[in-house]
Design brief:
Layout (H helix, E strand, L loop, with lengths): L2 H14 L11 H8 L3 H14 L2 E4 L5 E4 H8 L7 E2 L2 H7 L15 H12 L7 E4 L6 H14 L9 E5 L7 H9 E2 L11 E2 L1 H4 L4 E5 L6 H13 L1 E4 L2 E7 L3 E6 L3 H4 L2 H5 L3 E4 L8 H19 L3 E4 H9 L5 H19 L5 E3 L6 H5 L3 H5 L8 E3 H9 L3 H18 L4 H21 L10 H19 L5 H16 L1 H10 L1 H14 L1 H18 L5 H11 L10 E8 L3 H13 L4 E6 L5 H15 L4 E6 L7 H4 L6 E5 L4 H12 L4 H12 L3 E4 L5 E8 L3 H14 L6 E7 H7 L4 H5 E8 L9 E4 H5 L4 H8 L5 H14 L2 H8 L4 H19 L5 H19 L10 H7 L1 H10 L1 H7 L5 H10 L1
Parallel strand pairs: 1-3, 4-11, 4-12, 5-8, 8-11, 13-14, 16-17, 16-18, 18-19, 21-22, 21-23, 23-24
Antiparallel strand pairs: 1-2, 6-7, 9-10, 13-15, 19-20
Helix pairs in contact: 1-3, 2-3, 6-7, 13-15, 13-18, 19-20, 21-22, 21-25, 24-25, 24-26, 25-26, 27-30, 30-31, 32-37, 38-39, 38-40, 39-40, 39-42, 42-44
Length: about 900
C-alpha cells in the first residue's frame, strides 16, 4: 500500500473516534509522525487527497485534515466544500434546520419553540401564522419548519414544501382559487384537463401561503372547510370531496387582526410575531453581518477585509427592509468592490457601501473620519467582536458575579456596594475615555441637556445633589444603553430572578437612592423613547449611593460655586488628591438668589443627616450673608470664603485628621488670610416617640422593646410619651422643642404634620420595618443594622407583643380576638385585612388588660353623636365582644367600641 493510501486509511481510523474539539491527531505533523515521514511530505499527500475530495481540510492554525466520508456520517450531513476556514466555519455549514437561523438561541428562541410545536402537533400539525415586517425571515422560518419536520421524521423525505405568494394573485382571485384547489376537466372554458391544486401537490408536506393578507375574503372562506376537516372541492366539482393532509403556514406583513377575517384567525391557533432587525440584539446583528460576509468570501474564494468605519456604518444603519435589505446591502457592496478592484483580496471601504447607507450616516462622522477609521479588519476578526460582549453587558455580568460571590462569602451590604460601585466607576471611566467604543450618535448633546433638566427636577424633589460632571457621565451611560437595549433586555430576561432579588435589596436598603434613580431612569427612558431595564435602575442606584456618609466623625465638606461645574470639579480634584470622598460640590446657576442657596444647604443638611459639623466653602464674598440665614441647622457650620483647590485640600486634610470646625477655620484663616464664620448648631437630640392611645404603660413597653432591639446605645432617644398631649398640642408640644422627633411609633396615629408615623401593627406585620430602619440606620454600621432588623422581627412578633404588653396568656387572647374578628367580619360583610387584624390583636389584648385593671376609657368627646349615628354597627361590635366579656369578666365601654369602629 502506498503512503498516500495509508495516510487516508489512518485518517479514516482516527476519524471514527473523533470528538469535535479534539483536533491534534488530525494535524499534518501528527500524521507525519505516525508514518515517520516529514511534515511537508504528509502535507503534500493530504492536500492531494483534499483535491480529490476524499479529505476535508480546515485552514486553521495548525491545519487539520478529516476523512470526508466519516466526518459526513458523524455530522449527519453532506459537506459542500473540501476546504473550510475554521472548525466554526465547518460547523456552521452543518447546522440543521432552525440552527441555521441566527438568533435561534437568542431572540428567536421562544418563537422557534412555537414553530416546533406547530410541526409536531399530532396528527397533521397546526396551522401557524408568521407576522412581521418584510425581510425578517418569515419565508426562511417557514422552510425551516419543513426541514425540521423531515429531520424529526414527522414529514416524509419525499414530501414537498410549496410556497405561494398570494400578492401575485391580488387581482385575480379566481386564478388563485384554481391554483390552490385545482380543477376538474371542463370546469370553465379552457379547462381541458383535470388539474391538481397546490393543496394536493403539498399533500403530506407543507403549503406556505405568503402575504396571506392579499387573500380575498371568499378565498379565505374556501379554506375553512379544508382547515377544519382536511377536505375541499376542486373548482368545477361541488359534489366530490378531495382530501389532503398538507400543513399550512401563513405569513403576513400586515396586522393580522386587521388583515384577516376573524373567522380565519380563529382557525389559526398559533400566531407568532417575528422581530425587526432593529429589535434584535447587537450580537445577532454582528453575527448576521459576519455570516453574510463569510458567505461572500466562500463564494468568491477571496479574502475579504472591511474598514472600521464601513463596518460601523453597516452595523449602525437602520434597515427598513430588515435582514433581507442588509443582505442586499452587503451583496451590492461586494459587487461594487469587485468592479473596481479585482485583486486577490476584497477591501471594503466606506465609499463602497450603497449610497443610501452612506447618506444615513451623520455628517460629522463622514467628514471627520481619519486613517485609523479606515484601518482594514479581516472579516474573520469580526467574529471576535461577536464573541466579546459590549462593555455594558460585561458590567452586567460582573455586577451579578460580585453579588453572588459576596453573598456566598457572607459579606455585608456595605462591602458588596463598595465593590459594585468600583465596577460601575470603571465602566463610567471607560465611557469617558474610550476610543474604540466612542459614540457616533449625535443625540448626546440633546440627552445631556435633557438629563440636566430631569436631574434638577428630581434633585429638587428629593433634596438631592448630583454634580454636573456626574450627569455628563450618566448621559453617556444612557446613550450606551440605548445602543445595547435589546441585548440588555435579553440579558435581563435570562437573569430576571436575580435582578429582582438585587432590586428589592436596593429598594429596602437604599429606598431614597432607589427612588431618585428610578425617577431619573424613568424620565430618561421616556425622553429617549427606549424602555430601560430594571438592572439599569440598580446601576443608577448604586451610582448614587453615598458610601462615605458615616466617615470622618460626621464632619463633611460642601463646596458651593457659581457656574456649570466649578464646585464639582474642585470637589472631585480634592477628593481625588485626598484619596477619599470628603467634599460634595453643588454647582449653582449664576443668578441664583441667596434664599435659594440657603434652601440648597438646608436640604443638603437634611439629606446628610445626622452630621455633626459642616464646613461650607463658597466662591464669593457676597455669599457670606448666607450664614445669617441658615436657621434649621442642628450642627455646627464653618463658612470659608473664596474657595480654591488649595483651601479645599487644606480643609480636607484637617477633616481627615479629626480636627473640629473651629480649629479648621483658625488654620485656614492663618494660612490663607480668608474670612471665615462659625455658626454654632442648636443641638437637639434626635428621638423616636412611642405612644399609645389608651395608656402610657403600653407606650413604655413599646419603647422598651425598641430599645432592647438596638445592638448598642445610640445618640437617639426612644421616648414613651402621652398620646393625648400630642393630640392636643401637635408640634407645639414641649417635647418638640427639646428633641428633634424623627418618628412616632404607636397604636393610633396622632397625625402630627411633618412627622412620620409608624403603627405598631404594621411593625408586627413586618411590612414597615424600613420606615424604622431609615431613622436608626445612620447610627449603626451595616452589621449592626442587620442585627437590629433581626431583633425587631423577633421582638415584634404577635405573641411576643401580646406577652409583653399584657399579663394575659397570649395564645388564649389571640384565639379570643380571632373569634371576635370572625364575628365582626361576618356581621359587617367585610374582610379585615392582615395589618388591621394585627392592630386589633394588639389593641384588644391591651384593652382587656386595661379593663381588668379598671383603666378603661369611660368617656370621650362626641360619643353621644357617634352612638346615635352608628347604633347598628355598635351593636354588632358589642355582640362580637360578648365572648371576651364573659371570659374575662369585663364590660367593654362605649368609647372603646367607638374606637374600634373608627379603627375599622
Ligand atoms: N435569522 C436569520 N438568520 C440568517 N439569515 C436570515 C435570518 N432571517 C432572515 N434571513 C435571511 O434574510 C433574507 C430575507 O429573509 P426572508 O425572505 O425569509 O424574509 P421575509 O420576512 O419572508 O421577507 P418578505 O416579507 O419580504 O417576504 C433571506 O435571505 C434569509 O435567508
Amino acid at each position: 500500500m502506498d503512503i498516500k493510501t495509508s495516510l487516508a486509511k489512518e485518517l479514516k481510523k482516527r476519524c471514527t473516534t473523533l470528538k469535535i474539539g479534539e483536533d491534534e491527531r488530525f494535524s499534518a505533523a501528527s500524521l507525519a509522525n505516525a508514518f515517520q515521514i516529514s511534515r511537508n511530505t504528509a502535507s503534500q499527500y493530504l492536500n492531494e487527497l483534499v483535491k480529490k475530495g476524499n479529505v476535508v481540510k480546515i485552514n486553521s492554525r495548525p491545519v487539520y485534515f478529516f476523512h470526508r466520508q466519516v466526518l459526513e456520517e458523524k455530522l449527519d450531513t453532506t459537506l459542500e466544500n473540501s476546504v473550510y476556514e475554521s472548525m466554526e466555519d465547518l460547523m456552521r455549514t452543518t447546522k440543521r434546520d432552525f440552527e441555521k437561523m441566527i438568533g435561534y438561541n437568542g431572540s428567536l428562541r421562544a418563537l422557534i419553540s412555537h414553530c416546533q410545536a406547530a410541526v409536531t402537533y399530532p396528527d397533521h400539525g397546526l396551522p401557524i401564522l408568521i407576522y412581521g415586517p418584510t425581510g425578517t425571515g418569515k419565508s426562511m422560518l417557514a422552510h425551516l419548519m419543513y426541514e425540521y419536520g423531515i429531520h424529526q421524521g414527522i414529514l416524509d423525505k419525499k414530501s414537498k414544501f410549496i410556497a405561494l405568494n398570494c400578492s401575485e394573485y391580488a387581482n385575480n382571485p379566481e386564478l388563485l382559487t384554481d391554483n390552490l384547489f385545482g380543477h376538474v376537466k371542463g370546469a370553465y372554458t379552457g379547462a381541458e384537463n383535470e388539474q391538481a391544486g397546490l393543496i394536493q401537490l403539498a399533500d403530506q408536506g407543507v403549503l406556505f401561503l405568503d402575504e396571506v393578507h392579499c387573500l380575498k375574503a371568499e378565498c379565505q372562506e374556501k379554506l375553512f372547510q379544508f382547515m377544519d376537516k382536511g377536505i375541499y372541492h376542486k373548482v368545477g366539482d361541488n359534489e366530490n370531496w378531495y382530501r389532503s393532509s398538507c400543513r399550512l403556514i401563513f405569513a403576513t406583513t400586515e396586522d393580522p387582526q386587521q388583515a384577516l377575517l376573524k373567522t380565519m384567525l380563529r382557525r389559526i391557533p398559533i400566531v407568532i410575531s417575528i422581530p425587526s432587525l432593529q429589535q434584535r440584539p447587537q450580537v445577532e446583528k454582528i453575527e448576521l453581518i459576519y455570516t453574510m460576509l463569510m458567505m461572500e468570501r466562500n463564494h468568491l474564494k477571496q479574502d475579504v477585509y472591511i474598514s472600521n468605519l464601513a463596518y460601523q456604518a453597516l452595523l449602525d444603519h437602520e434597515y427598513r427592509g430588515n435582514i433581507g435589505e442588509l443582505q442586499n446591502a452587503i451583496r451590492a457592496t461586494v459587487a461594487n468592490v469587485l468592479v473596481h478592484q479585482g485583486q486577490n483580496a476584497l477591501r471594503i471601504r466606506l465609499l463602497d457601501l450603497p449610497e443610501y447607507l452612506f447618506e444615513s450616516m451623520n455628517t460629522l462622522q463622514t467628514k471627520n473620519y481619519d486613517q485609523e477609521d479606515e484601518a482594514m479588519i479581516p472579516i474573520t476578526d469580526l467574529n471576535k467582536d461577536r464573541k466579546s460582549k459590549t462593555p455594558l453587558l460585561q458590567l452586567y455580568d460582573r455586577l451579578l458575579e460580585t453579588y453572588h460571590t459576596c453573598q456566598s462569602e457572607g459579606e455585608d451590604y456595605h462591602q458588596i456596594i463598595t465593590r459594585c460601585k468600583y465596577l460601575i466607576q470603571n465602566f463610567f471611566d471607560l465611557l469617558f475615555f474610550r476610543q474604540k467604543y466612542r459614540s457616533i450618535s449625535s443625540n448626546e448633546d440633546y440627552l445631556l441637556k435633557m438629563l440636566d433638566k430631569i436631574c434638577s427636577i428630581v434633585m429638587n424633589r428629593y433634596s438631592f445633589t448630583v454634580p454636573n460632571n456626574q450627569i455628563k457621565i450618566y448621559s453617556k451611560a444612557f446613550v450606551e444603553y440605548s445602543k445595547n437595549a435589546t441585548d440588555a433586555m435579553l440579558w435581563q430576561s435570562f437573569h430576571s430572578q436575580e435582578v429582582q432579588a438585587i432590586q428589592s435589596v436596593m429598594q429596602e436598603q437604599y429606598a431614597r437612592d432607589y427612588s431618585v434613580a428610578s425617577e431619573i431612569v424613568d424620565n430618561a427612558s421616556l425622553n429617549l423613547d427606549i424602555k430601560m431595564d430594571d438592572f439599569m435602575r440598580v446601576i443608577m442606584t448604586l451610582a448614587l449611593i453615598d458610601t462615605e456618609k458615616e466617615e470622618n466623625n460626621g464632619r463633611v465638606g460642601l463646596i458651593l460655586c457659581h457656574g456649570y461645574s466649578t464646585a464639582s470639579s474642585i470637589a472631585d480634584t480634592a477628593n481625588h488628591l485626598l484619596g477619599e470622598h470628603i467634599f460634595d460640590g453643588i454647582d449653582m446657576e449664576l443668578k441664583i438668589s441667596i434664599d435659594k442657596i440657603v434652601q440648597l444647604v438646608e436640604d443638603y443638611l437634611k439629606r446628610k443627616s445626622p452630621i455633626q459639623e459642616l464646613i461650607l466653602l463658597v466662591d464669593m464674598g457676597s455669599l457670606e450673608a448666607i450664614y445669617k440665614k441658615i436657621h434649621l441647622s442642628n450642627c455646627n457650620i464653618g463658612l470659608i470664603n473664596y474657595v480654591s483647590t488649595a483651601t479645599a485640600l487644606e480643609v480636607g486634610h484637617a477633616i481627615q485628621h479629626g480636627k473640629v470646625v473651629q480649629e479648621i477655620l483658625r488654620d485656614v484663616k492663618n494660612s490663607f488670610y480668608l474670612s471665615t464664620h462659625f455658626i454654632e448648631g442648636v443641638r437637639k437630640e434626635d428621638a423616636i416617640l412611642t405612644l399609645c392611645a389608651t395608656g402610657f404603660g403600653v407606650a413604655k413597653k413599646i419603647s422598651e422593646l425598641l430599645k432592647s432591639a438596638l445592638p448598642k446605645p445610640v445618640a437617639m432617644d426612644i421616648i414613651p410619651y402621652d398620646y393625648q398631649s400630642i393630640l392636643d398640642h401637635g408640634k407645639e408640644d414641649a417635647i418638640f422643642s427639646q428633641y428633634n422627633i424623627r418618628l412616632i411609633v404607636g397604636t393610633l396615629d396622632p397625625c402630627v404634620e411633618g412627622v412620620e408615623y409608624l403603627s405598631l401593627e404594621s411593625l408586627v406585620a413586618s411590612d414597615s420595618i424600613q420606615a424604622l430602619m431609615k431613622h436608626v440606620s445612620p447610627y449603626l454600621n451595616a452589621k449592626e443594622q442587620n442585627l437590629f432588623e433581626q431583633n425587631i422581627m423577633k421582638n415584634f412578633t404577635l405573641s411576643n407583643i401580646v406577652n409583653h404588653l399584657t399579663i394575659l396568656n397570649a395564645e388564649k387572647v389571640i384565639d379570643d380576638v380571632e373569634d371576635f374578628v370572625a364575628q365582626v367580619e361576618r356581621a359587617l360583610h367585610k374582610t379585615i385585612d392582615a395589618t388591621v387584624r394585627m392592630g386589633l390583636y394588639v389593641h384588644i389584648s391591651c384593652l382587656i388588660e386595661r379593663l381588668m385593671l379598671r383603666q378603661g376609657i369611660e368617656n370621650v368627646e362626641g360619643i353621644q353623636e357617634f352612638k346615635a349615628k352608628n347604633k347598628e354597627r355598635m351593636d354588632i361590635v358589642r355582640q362580637a365582644f360578648s365572648g371576651i366579656e364573659m371570659h374575662y369578666s369585663v364590660e367593654i365601654p362605649d368609647p372603646e367600641i367607638m374606637y374600634i369602629l373608627n379603627y375599622l
